[in-house]
Amino acid sequence: MNGITGVFFNEKLVGQMWPIIDDKFEDMPQAMQPALDLPNVQLFESKAIPIEYLSRVHSNNVESLERAWYCEGALITIGGFMEASEKVLKGELKNAFNFMVAAGHHASPESAWGGTYASITGPTVHYLRNECGFNGKIAIIDTDSHHGDGTRAMFFTSVSVAGIAWKTTGQKFA
Question: In the chain, where are the structural domains located?
Answer without folding.
Answer: 5-136
